[in-house]
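dumping this here before i forget
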Amino acid sequence: MFGLFDFLGRLIVAIARDYRTVTATIANGASLSGEVDLGGAAILGIHMPAAWTAAVLTFQAAPASGGTFADVYDDLGNEVTLTVDTSRAVGVDLKSGALAPYRFIKIRSGTSAAAVAQGAERALTLSLKG
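structure:
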């Protein structure tokens, strides 16, 4: 917890930093993770597993748990993609604007036009704030 103080040192606003992680799992032979509930938090980064069948990441989102998931595009009509590789921690600050409105997401290996099946179960760790 940190805060903003006035010139006399009195606390004006306390600001909590709520960081946590969640896991998105892509099953062996699949390209799409199960549903991930972000709980209103923003994705700050994705920690990639040590083994990964080469592919970019793309995203799907739904307005409710168990809802109809749709591919996520930015305001220019481009599918939101993230370039990743094995054993990397990848910041997603440039992509978070397109993902920010969504609480329920799925992560895809590959693109909507060319999904890439993973050769084993893959666990991606998402670092969240909020």
